[in-house]
Design goal:
The complex is a heterodimer. Chain A is globular. In chain A, the strands form four sheets. In chain A, strands 2-3-4-6-5-11 form a six-stranded mixed beta sheet, with helices on both faces. Chain A has a five-stranded mixed beta sheet with strand order 8-10-9-12-13. A five-stranded parallel beta sheet of chain A has the order 14-15-16-18-17, with helices on both faces. Chain A starts with a strand and ends with a helix. Chain A is an alpha/beta fold. In chain A, helix 1 crosses helix 7. Chain A is built from 20 helices and 18 strands. Chain A has three domains: about 220 residues, 3-Layer(aba) Sandwich (Rossmann fold), CATH 3.40.50.970; about 100 residues, Rossmann fold (3-Layer(aba) Sandwich), CATH 3.40.50.920; about 170 residues, 3-Layer(aba) Sandwich (Rossmann fold), CATH 3.40.50. Chain B has a six-stranded mixed beta sheet with strand order 2-3-1-4-5-6. Chain B is globular and about 40 Å long. Chain B starts with a strand and ends in a 5-residue tail after the last helix. Classes of the chains: A alpha/beta, B alpha/beta.
Chain lengths: ~525, ~200
């Protein structure tokens, strides 16, 4: 048996390769990015011709994965939690169509928002879609679950959601690998009509999905990933979901919890396991990363006499933020070690744009061009340039979701705000900005769209951007008049002329696009280094 | 055997390379390991850390509980102090003394030195200087790793093998630089420890 030191994300990638994956589709997003990156750099994956190119966004990724599954092959779609909102239409409907080849959707949630704008819990999406959800408690389980996930996906003919969180995605450990499986041959679905969600067919498919619900629950109860572990002290029973199980056992000698425990790594929650633990314990503590999904199911709306449910809802655990061994220890009432505070001289060190970054020069131009206007006129988006909201730039006023800068600027302009500016990166533009720009152009809304093009997807580590070499053609193709498109180089030496071009665009009573284009300093440095090696 | 290590520094200082070397050495030594790290936005010149846990028995949590770390290994002095809440009562702080100043309100040198000198169990190393002496200041992270080796519970030879393996694909010059840096740090830490045991601090 081989043992390799891998990140949680890499474990899932290797598991998928070993389980007979034919293609992975994804858009970069912390903490999910390394799943695709691992497969892209795996010689084994190239040898097996596994498709591994980035998609334009999570929706196109989800749909392409469904198309591969339609052909009988095993496919995986990977994204961060907020990417699931983008993919949701395809995701929810893929549960109604059902699948042919195994389809595993891996979503990495980011509780505590280490690198995200919210901490939504993707388990709700699985529940919403009425499909099996896997939540591995450790990396070995994550590896094994990729095999199992493809298996039940093919057995139940449903997509399967694997939900992980930051500490699983970005923690490394030794993992034992299994014997590898072959990919599936191309084989069209026996009933291709199932993919035609006309109302009459959709109603049949939905009934089929509803009838499968007890089977899905039985599967969770019998796979072994959910388990009841008896304890000597029934004064408290504990339900621990995913990696919360580790934070629980961490607090006891030999990692053995004295209380009865239900370890949950697969959903829907098997009712039988819950009956077992509530039959033994009158007080239940629910430990789960993210939202109180299980706790709310257990508590319901009406009180259960003689049963007390504790967790995030009753204040035993904080309502927000990721769990830690310390937070779990406090919920268990265990003694904590003496405080050893950091000295007062320690100050925060927030992230900042790199030295020499083109976004910085773009913000200098923008702030200069906007200095005679009141604040509050610049909408922005998701990427490194979101740091323009912080000192010293204080240049932008919004960061909501991918592409929202352009459409929010439109709504603001429609309300009478003038000027109304959108600042968006190149990769975010092709992810979800293009359709919004079409809305703006169709009405010739007075909005200046600044596309800060660093020729890469910078914040997630420099993945290729679908926008590279295509931005001008896209804008013109959407109907932007050629004279309203300007392309500038954000360098200090062009500051004066760049400011005057931007000011002219701001003064124009219609739609303009101003592209600031200079390669990301990080990817440029990497390119020079790798050229030097060759 | 159980060693819990907080790795600390600023994005780009190479703490993930330190983690990779220790990880390799741990797997070679047939130890259990978990190592949680931070990716994404905070890497842009922000404070970064990694929780690294080594044990001869399976490790439960990916995160180290507060007050339980045996070692804080930091490539930057203020960052070493940031994670003191994680350090156990008899834990060691092994840190580079060369500040990385990319913020306006960085503490002044006198207060920073005073805080470091106030630590009971400490190894203070000017890693940039020692790495430069080895040939390149970029090997400062390997100097710091060397300085922490006495506290890891892994033999220095195992760590050296891991350094050789990790840097192999970057060529012989890089291997030599990093191996020398590792030993430079290791020697410095041992000198400081023998000096301290010859002249224990007055209590």
């Amino acid at each position: 048996m081989q043992k390799r030191l891998l990140l949680g994300d890499e474990v899932i990638a290797q598991g998928a390769i070993d389980a007979g994956l034919s293609g992975i589709y994804a858009y970069p997003g912390t903490p999910s990015t390394e799943i695709m990156e691992y497969i892209q750099t795996s010689e084994e994956a190239w040898g097996k011709k596994i498709h591994c190119r980035w998609s334009a966004n999570e929706k196109t990724a989800m749909e392409a994965a469904l198309g591969m599954s339609y052909c009988g092959k095993r496919a995986m779609a990977c994204m961060k939690h907020v990417g699931m909102n983008v993919a949701a239409d395809a995701f929810i409907n893929s549960a109604v169509t059902g699948v042919n080849g195994g389809l595993l959707v891996v979503v990495a949630d980011d509780p505590s928002m280490h690198s995200s704008q919210n901490e939504q819990d993707s388990r709700f999406y699985g529940q919403f879609a009425l499909i099996p959800v896997l939540e591995p408690s450790n990396q070995q389980e994550a590896y094994d679950m990729t095999f199992y996930g493809f298996d039940i996906s093919e057995k139940l003919e449903l997509p399967v959601l694997m939900r992980i969180t930051t500490r699983m995605a970005h923690s490394r450990t030794g993992v034992r690998l299994r014997e590898k499986r072959r990919q599936n041959e191309l084989r069209l679905p026996a009933n291709p009509r199932q993919y035609v969600l006309l109302p009459a067919i959709a109603r049949q498919q939905y009934q089929k999905l509803l009838h499968q619900q007890p089977v899905i629950e039985q599967e969770a109860g019998s796979s072994g990933y959910d388990a009841f572990i008896d304890g000597t002290d029934p004064s408290l029973g504990i339900i621990a979901c995913g990696i919360a199980y580790n934070y629980l056992t961490e607090n006891f000698a030999g990692n053995v919890c004295p209380h009865p425990v239900v370890k949950l790594s697969q959903y829907p929650v098997p009712a039988e396991l819950i009956r077992t633990i509530t039959g033994k314990c009158n007080k239940i503590l629910v430990l789960e990363e993210g939202y109180p999904l299980v706790e709310a199911q257990l508590a319901g709306l009406i009180p259960h006499p003689g049963l007390k449910i504790c967790g995030r809802l009753d204040g035993t655990l904080p309502r927000a933020g990721e769990l830690t061994p310390d937070i779990v220890a406090a919920a268990l009432g265990l003694a904590k070690p003496a405080d050893r505070p950091a000295p007062a001289i320690v100050v925060p060190r927030p992230p900042a744009l790199c030295k020499g970054c083109g976004h910085t020069d773009m913000f200098h131009v923008l702030n200069e061009a906007m200095k005679d206007y009141p604040p509050g006129c610049v909408f922005s988006d998701i990427g490194c340039y979101t740091l323009g909201a912080l000192p010293p730039h204080l240049a932008i006023n919004s960061c909501v979701d991918m592409g929202a800068s352009i459409t929010m600027a439109k709504g603001a302009a429609d309300s009478g705000l003038s000027p109304s500016i959108a600042v968006i990166g190149d990769s975010t533009f092709t992810h979800s900005g293009m359709t919004g720009l079409l809305d703006v152009i169709l009405e010739n809304t007075p909005v200046v769209v600044v596309i800060s093009d660093n020729l890469t997807t910078g914040m997630t580590g420099g993945q290729p951007s679908s926008a590279s070499g295509a931005i001008e053609k896209i804008c013109l193709g959407l109907g932007l008049p050629e004279e309203r498109l300007k392309v500038l180089v954000p360098l200090k030496k062009y500051q004066t002329e760049n400011v005057s071009v931007l000011k002219e665009s701001i003064a124009y009573a219609g739609t303009s696009v101003v592209v600031f284009r200079r390669e990301c300093v990080q990817t440029a440095a990497r390119r020079v280094r790798s050229a030097g090696k060759q | 055997m159980k060693t819990d290590i907080i790795l600390a520094g600023v994005g780009g200082q190479g703490i993930l390379s330190i983690a990779a070397v220790i990880g390799w050495a741990a797997i070679d030594s047939r130890l259990y390991i978990k190592q949680a790290e931070i990716h994404g936005m905070s890497q842009r010149g922000g404070a970064v850390y990694s929780h690294l846990r080594l044990s001869d028995a399976p490790v439960a949590s990916d995160l180290i509980p507060t007050g339980k770390a045996n070692v804080i290994l930091s490539v930057e002095p203020m960052e070493a102090l940031r994670y003191l809440p994680y350090l156990s009562g008899n834990g060691w702080v092994v840190t580079n003394t060369r500040p990385f100043v990319n913020i306006d309100n960085y503490p002044d040198a006198v207060s920073l030195t005073a805080q470091l000198e106030a630590l009971d169990k400490r190894i203070l190393v000017n890693a940039d200087e020692l790495a430069t002496r080895c040939g390149n200041s970029k090997a400062a992270n390997m100097v710091m790793l060397g300085a922490a080796v006495p506290f890891l519970g892994i033999d220095v030879g195992q760590v050296e093998t891991a350094v050789r393996n990790i840097f192999e694909r970057k060529g012989n010059a890089m291997v030599d630089l990093n191996v020398n840096a590792l030993h430079e740090g290791y020697t410095t830490a041992q000198q400081q420890m023998s000096l301290r045991s010859a002249n224990p601090p007055a209590s």
